[in-house]
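Notebook B, p. 112. Complex prediction, attempt 2.
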Amino acid sequence: MQAIKHGSQCLAAAACTALMAAAAVHAQGTEFTNVQRGRYLAQAGDCISCHTVKGGKPFAGGYPVETPFGTIFSSNITPDVVTGIGNWSRDDFYRAMHEGRRKDGQYLYPACPYPWFTKMPREDVDALKSYLDTLQPVRAMPPENKLIWPLGWRRLVAGWNLLFFDQGEYVHREDKPDVWNRGAYLVEGPGHCAACHTPKNMFGASDRDKAMQGGDAGEAWYAPSLTASERDGLGTWSVNDIVQYLKTGANEDTASTGPMTEVVMNSTQHLSNADLIAMATYLKDIPAHKPEEVKDIDEQVMARGKGLYIDQCMGCHMADGKGQKGAFPPLADSPPIRASQPQTLIQVVLAGDFMADPPELPTGLAMPGFAWKLSDQQVADVLTYVRNTWGNRAPPVDADQVAEVRTALHEHGPRYKRLISQSVH
Amino acid sequence: MDTLETKRNILDDSAPGGGVMPEFPRATPPQNALSRRRFVQTALALPVLFALPACSQDKATPVKLARRFFSAEEYRFIVAATARLIPGSDEDPGAVQAAVPFFIDLQLAGPYGRADRWYMEGPWAKGTEQQGYQLQETPAQLYRKAIAGMDDYCRQRFDGKAYADLGEEDQDQVLHDMDQKKIELKDVPAQAFFALLWQNTQEGFLSDPMYGGNRGFAGWKLIGFPGPRYNYVDDITQYGKPYPMPTVGLLGRDGTRTGTVA
Amino acid sequence: MATRLNPVDVVLVGFGWTASIIAQELTDEGLQVLALERGVDRATVPDFSTTHIQDELRYAVRGGLFQAPVRETLSFRNTRDQTALPMRHLGSFRPGAGVGGAGVHWNGQTWRFLPDDFVLRSHTEERYGADFIAPDITIQDWGVSYDDLEPYYDRFEYLCGVSGTAGNVGGSLRQEGNPFEGARRRDYPLPPLERSSGSLMFDKAARELGYHPFPAPAANTSRPYKNPLGVQMGQCTYCGFCEWFGCGNNSKASPQSTILPVLLKKDNFSYRSGCDVTRVKLDNTGKKAKGVLYRDLEGREYEQPAQLVILCAFAHHNVHLLLLSGIGRPYDPVSGTGVTGRNYAYQITSSVEAFVDELINPYMGAGALGQAIDEFNTDNFDHGPEGFIGGGYIALWTTGGRPITQHHLPKDAPKWGAGWKKAMSENYLKSVSVATHGSVVSHRGAYLDLDPSYKDAYGNPLLRLTFDFHDNDYRMSEFLTGKAEGIAKAMKPRSINVNKRKKPYSIVPYQTTHNTGGAIMGDDPRTSVVNRYLQSWDVPNVFVVGACNFPQNAGYNPTGTVGALAFWAADAIRKMYLKNPGPLIQA
C-alpha cells in the first residue's frame, strides 16, 4: 500500500526530460518552474475531469461527453506516443488550444472548450504542455465517437467555427484593474466557466448575448447564473463568499453539487487565494440580467410541497429552511435554489449528492436520494415549495421536468461517475 | 445450507420480510484508501414496490392479498387467531383490518422465516428458560407445525372443528390455554408458538406499512405515534401539546403498501 | 493453505470505535495501518439515510445492523454445572458488526467512571474492611487511575461533541452538573440537549426528594459541531431512532461521523470489510505475534503479517480471539487460576414504569436524552448498613417511542385482545420509565472460555459464557430499584410497574450490550491479561482494547471509558512502544 506521490515521480521525470532536450538549453530550475506553472494551469482548466474516466488512468481520456448531437469521447492527453500526445510538439499543442485543430489537421469538436482555451497566451500553453509531458504515459485509445450523421465528419466543424468561434488570446483591458483582468483571463480562458454557465443555441454554441446567465452543464445538470442577479446569480454574494465557495465547495448560502463539486475538488480548490479573488472580482462585475417573472404559485402545490418538506427534508434542512450551520446547507435565501432551471435540484433530490471534501472541509456530508420514495409530482411539489418559501421566489417545477431528469438518470446510468481526487497528479 | 453463502447474504443488511425492498443509492468507498472518492450511484434499477390491487380507498372490505407462505387452511388459522389477539372492526381496526396476516405471511416467506441470521447448528437440547430459543424449527417451520398441531387439537376438543371455525369465546380460550402451557402438541411447544405468534402480530400491527401490516396506520393511529419523522426540535419543548402533523410512513402519508415511484 | 499478504506495520482486528481512534493516532505516526472488519462497509449515506433509517422492524426488531449469530455467537449457561447452549438469536445484548461497529447503533450515553471505580478493591477494603467483599468476588484495581485517564476522557468527549454540563471543573463544583463526578479539566464541548417532558418530570420529582438531578452526558450533538479533527457533525433533531439505528444527520457520534472522513483519506490507512479474523498468528516461541489469519467471504484464508497486532473487536470477541490464539493462560474457574476469560461482568438494570396523566410524546427523543441522579453510584453513599458494594445511576431516558419495542403497559393490562388495545391507546402517550443502571462485580463463577461442543462457521469452538449476577448485585439492584420507585411515585402517576431484577440472569430479554471483562487490565500478570497500557503480558506486540479490559463493570455505560482507554493505549504506543518495542511494564 505504498503510495508514491505522483507529483514527485513526475517532477523527477521532468528533470530528466529537460536534460535530454536537444533544443534550447534551460537551467534545470527554470524547467521545473514551468512544469509547476503548467500543473497549476491544468488545475485551473480542470483538464483531468474531462480527460479521465471512472476506473481509468488520469488524463488518459475516454470520458463520454454527452451532447445533443451524440457522444464524444475525450482524448488521451498523456504523453503516450501512439494513443496520446507524446509526439505533439509545442506548436501542435498550441494549435489545438488556440485554433481547435489536431496535430493531423483535423478539427477538434467544441466539446473540448477551445473557444475558451484560445485565450491562453503561448507561454501558458507551453507550460501546460511541459506539465502534460511529465505525466505517466498511458497506452489507451478512447472509444469511437457516436455522433449523429453527418456530424462524424469533422470538416463540418469548420463551419461551426466560422459562425461561433472567436479565435484569439486574451486582451488586457486598460480600463479595468489588474485583478479584474487576471480574473477575466482565468474565467474566460482556462476556467471556461461559461461553457456550462452560458445557455447554448441549437448548434451547441454558447449564446454570447446571454453570457453567464445559466446553462446546461450536460448530463441533466443545470449551471446557474453567475451574473449579478440577486435572485439566482451572484448578486447577494460578496467576493469572499465566492472565494469561499470555490475554495471549499461551500459557503453560508449553499454547497456545490454534481459537476461543480468536481470542479471544486479538481480545479478551484487548488488555485491561489489571489487568483480566486481575481475570478470573484471579475464575476461580480457581470451585470445582472432580469430574471423571469414568477406568477403566483398554485396554493395546492404549496400545501402539498409543505407537507412533503416537513415529512422528508426537515431532518437536515430544518423547519426554517436554514439548514444546520457549517453542516447542511440552507435552502432559504439561497440563490442556487432559485436557479431559473431546476434540473440540478431535481437530480440532487432524486439521486442525492456528496459535498466537496477538500482539506478544510474533510467531512463530505451527503444527501440521500429520494428517487424510490417520491413520485415525479411529489418531487416537483416539494421543489416548488422550497423555491417559493422563506423569501425565495423562483419558477415552479412540474412533474414533466422531473420525469425528464429521472429518465436521464435511468438512461445514462450513474451520471456523476467521475473520479475526484484531492490531488491532481 | 452453505453457511458461507448464507454469511454473504447475512452480512449485508438483509431486508426483512419477503417483499421487495428498494435498493438505496449506494456510494461505495473503495476498500483501498488510495482512491479517495466515492462514486455516487443513483437508485436506478430500483424495483418498483408492489402495486397492490386498488384497496386503499376501500378500507371496509377485508384485504385480499396474494399469499406467499401459508396454505389456504393455515391462513384461515392465522386470520382467526390474529383477529382474537387484536380484535377490531372497520371503525376500530384490529389485526385483520390492518392486514397483519398478510404481514406475517410475507415475513415467514422471507429471511426471517428462514432464520437466516440465527445460529441453527446442533447439538440440540431443551435448555433452561434463561438459555432461550433452542428449537430446531425456524419460525416458518414452527408456524407450519404448530398450526397443523393446533388445528388437530381443536378438532379433537371441539367436535371436529378447526380453530377458524370455533366461536370467539372458544378461540380466546384456546389462545389462553396455549399461553398458559395447558396445551401440549406433539411436534412443537404450543407456548413457544403462541409467544412467536403474539410477537409477530404486534409487529404486524405496529411496523411500517411498507411491510404489509399496519394498514392505513391502524396501529400507529391507535396509540398516537405519528410515524418516522426526523425533526422535533421545535416540538419537543411544546410540553403537553399534542403533535399536530398527520401520520406518515416511510413511503409517505399513504398508509398502504403501495409505492409511489413513478 | 493461507495466502500470505504483504506486511503492514499495524493490523487492527475490527473497525469500530477503538480501531478508528487507534488508527487515526497511529497513522499520524506515519505507520501503515490496516483494519480488518468482519462486517459490511457502512457510510452515513446511503446506509443510515434519513429517508429509510427510522424502520423499527428492520433495525430494532430484526437487527439489521447487528452481528448475526449465524456467523458468531456464544453459548451460555448460568452456572458451571449446566450445559451451555448457543444463543441462537440475539437477546440480552446486541454486538455490532460492520464498519463503525456498535458505535453506529449505540445511544450515545457517554459517562466517565468515578475515581473510586478504578481502585474499587483497595478503596472498598480501606473504607469497609476486607471482609466486606465476599470471598468469591474478584474485583480488582485497574492499574490506572481516573487522573491518568482524565485527559483521554476529555479527548473522547471532544471528538464526539458530547452535550452536557459539567459538575466539577478542576475541583470547583457546578450546580447544573453531576456533583459526584470526578474533576474534569473543562466543560463539555456542547451544552446539554433540550429537556423532554420526561426529563422535566424526573427533575422535579428528584429535586423534591432532595437529590441532585442533572442532564445525562450525550454523544448526540445539541448544536452543529466541528470536532478537533475538523470533521463536521450535524445537530440532533430528536428523531427518536437512536439506539439500533445509524444516525442520518451526523449528530450521533460514531466512527463515521467523527473520524472516518479524515482517516479514510490517509494514504497509510486502509481497511478490508468482509474479513473474519480467526487467529492471531504467533511465532514458535508463542511470545511474538507475526500477524493474523483471516477468512474472506468466500472462505479463503489469508495471513496478514504485521509488526503490531491490536485487537479492537467487540469486547468478548476479543476474548474469543485470545482464547483461540492461545494468548494468556485460559481461566480455570475451579482452581481460580489463569487469566484469559476471567472476570466477565455485565450491567444490572431494572426499571419502574410510571403511567401519568401528562401527555409525554415519547417518540420525540434522543439516545442520550435523559435526566439522572448519581447519589447511589459507586461509593457515593454509605454502603455499611446495606451490605453490598457497587451502585448505579438512576435516570429517566427519553430515547424514543418506537411502537413495537418501546411501549409501556401497566402490569394489570390484558396481555392481548380488546383490553390490550385499550391499554395501548391509553398509555402509549402517557408513560415514562425510570431506569436503574447498576454496576456488576466480577466473581469466580463469571467467566468466558471455549465451548466443548458448539462450533462457528469455520469449525472453531464458540465462546462460552458462564454467568449470573452475584448476590451482591441482586441486593444492590433491589436497593436501587427502591430508590427509583421513590422517584417514580413522586411524579404522582396514575400507577407504576416496579420491574425488579429477578434471578437468575436470562439471555433472552434485551438488557444492555455492556459486556465487560475477559481480557482485563491490571498490575499483576497473574490476575490480568494486559498491563495498564493494554499490552498483552504474554505477547508484547499484541494490544487488546475495549470493555474487555474492565476488571469489573461500574454503574455507567462503558463507551466513554472504552474511548478513553483507546486514546490512552494509542498514546502509550506512540510515546513509548514505538520508540522501544517490547514490554512496557516489566512483569
